[in-house]
């Protein structure tokens, strides 16, 4: 039996093999839309030429060997681009460099220390450094959500929870995100504290 999280992880993993689709779905990138549409059309043409209208490509391209070579290269191109789309996010993470990773880790540790001392706004300053750029740092985002919750900025916390929940890297942190969301919703339903 597969749980809901397993099926969601499987869906995210399978979307990685469709070039452009992952960035299109989660970030709305226009370039990814064009790449995704082009890949879909090429896949449909290859599928039809291979299994439905097998003589269609042979009639368009005069030598028989040239038609078979074209179809084979089309399938190899589709497979290669699909495989590259699946492994490309891992390649970009490895190119990020250790200096950036150690800097992010240092910022996170500093923010955690400040958070434990209840210096939330100074901790948030370090967390924002980690959240800038294209790197998806879920650990820093969780700490930021907790800071937003403790400083009673519930709409921003809920918006961040929604955004972080769409990331592949957030699958491992699903239960923590759900718990933070429940706590934020509970605080949102509480009446505001009375002032003297």
- Give me the CATH architecture of the largest domain, please: Alpha Horseshoe
How is the main sheet built? none
Summarize the helix and strand pattern as letters: HHHHHHHHHH
Backbone CA Rg: 24 Å
- Name the overall outline: elongated
Q: Calculate the terminal CA-CA distance, rounded to whole Å.
A: 56 Å
Strand content: under 5%
Which residues form runs of ≥5 with pLDDT under 50?
Answer: none
Which structural class do you get from the secondary structure elements? mainly alpha
| Number of helical segments with 4 or more residues | 10
Give the integer mean of the pLDDT values. 77
Oligomeric state of the chains present here:
single chain
**What is the helix fraction of residues, given as a range?**
over 70%
What count of structural domains? 2
Secondary structure: number of strands: 0
Explain the overall architecture.
There is one protein chain. The chain is mainly alpha-helical. The chain has two domains: 4-94, no CATH class; 98-189, Serine Threonine Protein Phosphatase 5, Tetratricopeptide repeat, CATH 1.25.40. 76% of the residues lie in helices and 0% in strands. It has helices spanning 4-15, 21-27, 30-52, 56-60, 64-94, 98-116, 120-131, 138-150, 154-164, 174-189. Helix 2 (21-27) runs antiparallel to helix 3 and helix 8 (138-150) packs antiparallel against helix 9 (154-164). The radius of gyration is 24 Å and the shape is elongated. The mean pLDDT is 77.
